[in-house]
Amino acid sequence: MTLTPPIHPPPARPLDGRTIVITGGAQGIGRGIAQAVLGAGGRVCIGDTDADAGRAALEEWNVGDCALFLRVDVAREAQVARFVQRARSHFGPVHGLVNNAGGTDPVNGPLEKLDLREWQRRLGASLGGAFLCSKHLLPALREAAGDGGAASIVNIASTRAHQSEPDCEAYAAAKGGLVAFTHALAVSAGPGVRVNCISPGWIATDAWRKPTARRRPGLSRRDQAQHPAGRVGTPDDIGALAVHLLSAAAGFTTGQEFIVDGGMTRLMRYD
């Protein structure tokens, strides 16, 4: 008797009924991920320091109880603990965490003039926040995994973990740390919780800000041509991969980094 592997069509709503916590989820890449999760049938709890952006996102989405905004500074453990507790009491089981919060300005100035407190602040906003949110949400994720859910953490790093411009040491260190944190936590949290990392390249977020700061991206032909894909990325590009990694379809994928940059880091240039 020959056993033929069956053909399984992918689910139309791969995150149906699942709750995903997304830090820095009110604007930019975080908002793109949140909208992708909602489009995949999931519920989202977005945490952000910008309350105006958070409230605007909920109003524009208009999805009722499927979305919750909570103000949180992920570098402060007491706030993170309250954030996680409120998310769990509102939604119940939590199936995924996206550690996206972090500074958007990579430039720290000359290293010899960089204050230690500023160095620590920059690392705390990204790497420290991912540690704190993972620490406080892991029990909930393990519970979801035990109930048969696909529990997953997705860290948002950057291609700057692998390449740099001058005076960006703190940002590069934080994002490089996130890549290493990803594979370390994947080993510790498995097999119940999968942990992966997305490293975006040039993503145009101008149209993904709160309404008062929103504008069309000012991109030149040269900007687009730097990418073998032919264009600069959008938050939708990151959201699509995040949904896959958060879903059961990625059940055999953990401890990995995925570079999403339109091929820019693979393009050899001499000009």
CATH class: Alpha Beta
Radius of gyration: 19 Å
Give start-end ranges of low-pLDDT stretches: none
* N-C termini distance: 62 Å
- Report the count of strand segments: 7
Number of helices: 7
Q: What can be said about the biggest beta sheet?
A: 7 strands, parallel
Q: Decide which structural class fits the backbone.
A: alpha/beta
Q: Characterize the overall form.
A: globular
* CATH homologous group name: NAD(P)-binding Rossmann-like Domain
What helical percentage do the residues reach? 25-40%
Protein model, in words:
With 271 residues, the protein is an alpha/beta fold. It has one domain: NAD(P)-binding Rossmann-like Domain (Rossmann fold). The protein contains 7 helices and 7 strands; from the N terminus they run E-H-E-H-E-H-E-H-E-H-E-H-H-E.
Brief write-up:
With 271 residues, the chain is an alpha/beta fold. Helices cover 39% and strands 14% of the residues. The protein has a single domain, classed as Rossmann fold, CATH 3.40.50.
Show the helix and strand layout.
Layout: E1 19-23, H1 28-39, E2 43-48, H2 51-61, E3 67-71, H3 77-91, E4 96-99, H4 116-146, E5 151-156, H5 169-189, E6 193-200, H6 221-225, H7 235-246, E7 257-260
Parallel strand pairs: 1-2, 1-4, 2-3, 4-5, 5-6, 6-7
Helix pairs in contact: 1-7, 3-4, 4-5
